[in-house]
Specification:
The structure holds two protein chains of two kinds. In chain A, strand 4 and strand 5 form a beta hairpin. Helix content of chain A is about 25%, strand content about 30%. Chain A is built from six helices and ten strands. Chain A has one domain: P-loop containing nucleotide triphosphate hydrolases (Rossmann fold, 3-Layer(aba) Sandwich), CATH 3.40.50. In chain A, helix 5 runs parallel beside helix 6. By secondary structure, chain B is α+β, with helices and mostly antiparallel strands. Chain B folds into four domains: about 200 residues, no CATH class; about 180 residues, no CATH class; about 190 residues, no CATH class; about 140 residues, no CATH class. Helix content of chain B is about 50%, strand content about 20%. In chain B, helix 15 crosses helix 22. Classes of the chains: A alpha/beta, B alpha+beta. Chains A and B meet through helix 1, helix 2 and helix 3 of A and helix 1, helix 8 and helix 12 of B.
Chain lengths: ~240, ~775
């Protein structure tokens, strides 16, 4: 039987976002990406951040992942204010606590699947066994292949393995199915749910695909840089049943 | 191996030709550094060993005559360790059946020779008969002399047959030239023969006297100070000149060669390393820009800025180290050949080939300095990339209008040309950077062309414009004016002029130097003097001119008084005023009115030779005139100069090859970088319907414009470098003073463009196979 997201007991808050604002300059244009968003993500939750393009989802993810500093507001990670971290602390935070999965996988073309995973584990303090992870993502047979020899789905599996192998507390996934076809996308979602269940990782997926929201414990709807609605989903469905 | 290191190696492999080109430039820089420094170092050491083992004289004193038992006057001077006397004289070698004039310097060998000891190459080590002779190796080679050959000398009107019993080398004649007036050695026409003291005394009628002393000093004594004492002590023996080792002709030429080599070995490698460093910087910079997303991913994984910087610097360091090791390996083996070539050309024995760890460490240090520098400079932008920012698409550059935009001309040019010009104007730093590379290539090509062109000019300026005599005839020893009549009786001539050529010490303030003073007629038609501005100087009565090189060394200006220190017995030192500085590139002399020179310095009526203009068969007709030591014609000098130019052309070819490597590396890498960084743009153009050839055409056009800019920068740069190198390489014997001819620039530009064309051709193959459309789908880096 396929797994659904963890039925979380509200034990502790993994991420607390408070009045988060981010304005930045892009070329000649000033972008107000986040205009004061607030929400909480509980430990072990599977969260989907849903919103159309330009709603500030990716910016939000970057703030949570310590990739960027907000203009205002705070992001707390297990009660520690990440926005007050120094550059060095942020790097360490990304190294040990966060795993990123990107829409376009962003693998190193000249490294094999396994080496791409090793790239992440070589620098973190408590990595998981790579071979087990590769097996879990269904790629033990393809470990020696280069990205150019793999399908999009396989590449995204490598990217997930890379993020998970670091043994982070939180997995941040930016449109992980955005570049994949329907069936492969569903498989990737299942893999993320499996990771959430098996490895007890808090998973935050951002997407513009409303159908995906059904697999989450919590859905944070965003529009124009603001949180429009937060929906608690008591009965997340299996990705297998998602249709779009 | 760490994954990031694997990435470095695999990415280097992927762009192997690009990196190989830079690696080659780096390698050539290190190769030159090692080969030249070690080669010259070994040559210097070998020469020093030769001088030391064979005890090259610290001081040599020429006198009219000094009795054997008077050597103590020198030996007793403080600082003198040992003194040996010898008889030395230049005499004609008689070659029956030919009109050849060959001069040999006959030098007597003391019984237990301790100074200027001979190096035995083959044959006997002692004289068994007074007619036995040792012959110097260069002369043996030049005339193909064999052991047991008979050499016939004409001494004081008599013929002497000497039996060649040994071939020898001498530390005194490592570079064999008759005197400093000879611009090039001629081993066929001048040689040295060592004879027994008994033979020399009898043949030259020297009795129990010598006419030259070789002096060995105790350690720690300043030769210049001891020299002054020796001059005083030898005054009554008719001291002609006393020279310290540093002014000894062969030693001086070798020292100048070493000095010049050291200068080149300091400048040339730097030039290559700077270019390699610059290209590497641009490449790494471009790589970092292309890897914007990758850097973001690395940072998202928790890689620190420093780790990312080190990762990208490794590309440069890897290339630097490979280039360095390859350069060291080739350089070390070349340095052996270099040393051998030097020691063979200069006849230095006791060749010691050593590997100097300091140069090996220096090579690694230099390559690391330039590669790490290039890596850090090129990759420093990776520090600036904020992780989140790198995940976003790079915002389009601000679209400014370029300089000519909106003008009528602008509106008339093609769309693709507009793109080319916009791109060039918006990336000024990059354009300037590449243009500088082209400029350096042009410099590397033009400088040797300049020197190659300058040498024949210097030659024709001196032999043809300044000196216009067809024959230069030297007597065995200074003689009276009546010798001219003997010559006049033997040949028909259009012009004949006496000359008096004698070495004196020229002193100005605290500086002094031994130079040949040449006396000539006030109304000479054989010499055409020009001053430094190229204006003709017309000699007046009692004129005194000094050549530019000597004037520079002694810091003499027109109107200055100079002392001419005279060692000839019964003659005094004189003070004369310099009437003009003569522009002369070959040799250092003082020119003087012959009447003044005869009256004040030598003897009334004394002459040392004549200059002749004649259509007659001068050589043949004068071959039986006994007191003539040499007859050199302009064509003789010209042919030996051509031989010399042949040797020089080899080094020019090497420089051109280096220029090719530079030009190729710069343009090939530039083109490939352009393609790699603009695949998206080119792909879009392909979608819009542009053909591959049209895109390639745009790249070539861009590179061509940059090349032209590089050439415009390169021309003054080449001029500046040539002029500076001209000063750096000028010596006592020759000095460069020309300007780069337009022809050299034209040839240089054509060659540089040729190199660039070849690089474009190599890049063309790579561009042809590129699938621009794939780039649009590319998501991995």
């Amino acid at each position: 039987m396929l797994m659904t997201a963890v039925q979380t007991e509200k034990t502790s808050v993994a991420i607390e976002v408070k009045n988060l604002k981010k304005y930045y300059q892009m070329g000649e244009v000033k972008v107000k990406a986040l205009r004061g968003s607030s929400f909480e993500v509980m430990d072990g939750e599977f969260v989907v951040v849903l919103g159309p393009s330009g709603s500030g989802k990716s910016t939000l993810l970057n703030m949570i992942g310590g990739m960027d500093n907000p203009t205002d507001g705070s992001v707390k990670f297990y009660n520690e204010d990440v926005t007050k971290y120094t550059e060095k602390q942020l790097t360490q935070y990304r190294r040990d606590e966060i795993g990123f999965v990107f829409q376009f996988y962003n693998l190193m073309a000249s490294l094999t699947a396994k080496e791409n995973v090793e790239l992440a584990t070589e620098i973190c303090s408590n990595p998981l066994d790579i071979d087990i992870i590769m097996n879990d993502v269904g790629l033990s047979e393809r470990a020696g292949h280069f990205p150019s020899q793999m399908s999009g789905g396989e590449q995204q599996r490598v990217a997930i393995a890379r993020a998970v192998a670091k043994n982070p507390k939180i997995l941040l996934c930016d449109e992980p199915t955005g570049a994949l076809d329907y069936s492969t996308g569903k498989k990737i979602l299942q893999l993320l749910v499996d990771v959430n269940r098996k490895y007890k990782k808090t998973v935050i997926v951002i997407t513009h695909n409303a159908a995906i929201a059904n697999i989450a414990n919590k859905v944070i709807k965003m529009r124009s840089g603001e949180v429009e609605e937060i929906i608690e989903n008591k009965n997340p469905i299996s990705p297998d049943r998602v249709e779009w | 191996m760490k994954s990031l290191n694997k990435r470095v190696i695999r990415n280097l492999k992927k762009s192997k030709l690009q990196y190989f080109a830079i690696m080659t430039v780096m390698m050539v820089g290190i190769l030159i550094y090692i080969a030249m420094n070690m080669g010259i170092g070994n040559f210097e050491n070998s020469a020093a060993t030769y001088y030391e083992k064979n005890n090259l004289a610290d001081i040599t004193a020429e006198v009219v005559k000094i009795p054997i038992n008077s050597l103590d006057v020198v030996k007793n001077i403080e600082g003198v360790k040992n003194v040996e006397g010898r008889i030395k004289r230049d005499v004609p070698l008689i070659i029956d059946g030919t009109k050849e004039k060959v001069t040999v310097r006959v030098i007597s060998v003391p019984d237990d020779m301790q100074i200027n000891k001979l190096y035995e190459i083959g044959g006997k080590s002692e004289f068994n008969s007074i007619y036995d002779a040792f012959v110097i190796e260069q002369f043996v080679e030049g005339r193909n002399i064999k052991l047991d050959d008979i050499l016939t000398l004409q001494i004081n009107g008599k013929r002497y047959d000497l039996n060649v019993v040994s071939e020898v080398g001498s530390p005194e004649f490592v570079y064999l030239m008759k005197d400093s007036q000879a611009i090039l050695p001629d081993f066929e026409k001048f040689g040295v023969i060592y004879v027994s003291e008994r033979f020399a005394k009898d043949a030259f009628g020297m009795g129990n006297s010598y006419n030259e002393l070789t002096i060995d000093l105790k350690e720690g004594y300043n030769p210049e100070k001891v020299k002054d004492e020796i001059e005083k002590a030898l005054d009554k023996y008719g001291v002609k000149r006393v020279i310290t080792r540093k002014d000894q002709l062969s030693y001086m030429i070798v020292s100048e060669e070493i000095k010049g080599g050291k200068k080149s070995s300091a400048v040339l490698p730097l030039l290559f390393l700077i270019v390699a460093g610059a290209i590497l910087t641009v490449m790494i910079n471009r790589l970092v820009k292309n890897d914007r997303m990758t850097i973001g991913v690395l940072k998202s994984m928790g890689y620190t800025n420093l780790e990312v910087l080190i990762h990208y610097s490794k590309f440069a360091v890897f290339i630097g180290l490979i280039g360095s090791f390859a350069g060291i390996a080739i350089g070390v083996s070349l340095s052996k050949s270099f040393t051998k070539l030097y020691t063979m050309y200069y006849k230095v024995h006791y060749v010691t080939v050593k590997y100097y760890p300091n140069y090996l460490i220096g090579a690694v240090f230099l390559s690391l300095l330039f590669s790490v520098g290039a890596g850090v400079l090129g990759a420093k932008n990776s520090l600036k990339i904020a992780p989140a920012e790198s995940m976003r698409k790079e915002p389009p550059k601000k679209g400014k209008r370029v300089l000519f935009e909106g003008t009528k001309l602008w509106n008339k040019i093609k769309f693709t040309d507009k793109m080319v010009w916009r791109n060039l104007m918006r990336k000024k730093t990059r354009v300037l950077f590449i243009a500088m590379g082209v400029a350096v290539t042009l410099l590397v090509v033009v400088v040797p062309l300049f020197f190659f062109g300058e040498m024949p000019k210097m030659f024709t300026e001196q032999y043809g414009k300044t000196l216009t005599m067809e024959y230069d005839i030297n007597f065995v020893a200074p003689t009276g004016m009546e010798s001219i009549d003997v010559i006049k009786d033997n040949i028909s001539y259009s012009e004949i002029e006496p000359k008096l050529d004698y070495p004196f010490e020229i002193e100005s303030k605290w500086r002094s130097k031994i130079a040949n003073v040449i006396g000539m007629k006030e109304d000479t038609i054989m010499y055409h003097f020009k001053d430094m501005d190229g204006k003709i100087l017309i000699p007046k009565k009692n004129f005194v001119y000094i050549t530019s090189g000597l004037a520079k060394i002694l810091e003499i200006e027109v109107g200055d008084d100079i002392n001419v220190n005279n060692y000839i017995p019964g003659k005094n030192d004189i003070v004369v005023k310099v009437d003009g500085i003569v522009k002369q590139n070959l040799g250092s002399n003082v020119y003087m009115d012959i009447d003044l020179m005869q009256k004040e310095l030598v003897d009334r009526d004394a002459i040392s030779g004549v200059y002749i203009n004649s259509d007659d068969d001068v050589k043949k007709k004068l071959e039986n005139v006994y007191n003539i030591s040499s007859v050199s014609s302009l064509s003789d000098i010209s042919s030996s100069f051509k031989e010399f130019m042949k040797i020089t052309s080899a080094s020019i070819s090497a420089m051109l090859f280096f220029g090719f490597i530079l030009g190729f590396a710069i343009m090939y890498n530039t083109t490939i970088m352009t393609i790699n960084s603009r695949t998206m743009e080119f792909s879009s153009l392909r979608i819009l319907g542009m053909s591959k050839n049209e895109i390639i055409g745009m790249i070539i056009e861009e590179n061509f414009i940059i090349s032209i800019l590089g050439i415009i920068i390169g021309i003054p740069l080449a001029k500046f470098s040539s002029e500076n190198m001209m000063n750096a390489f000028s010596t006592d014997i020759y000095s460069f003073s020309g300007t780069v001819e337009p022809k050299s620039y034209v040839i240089g530009v054509v060659i540089t463009l040729g190199f660039i064309f070849l690089a474009e051709l190599a890049a063309y193959g790579k561009i042809k196979n590129l699938n621009f459309l794939d780039a649009l789908k590319e998501r991995a880096s």
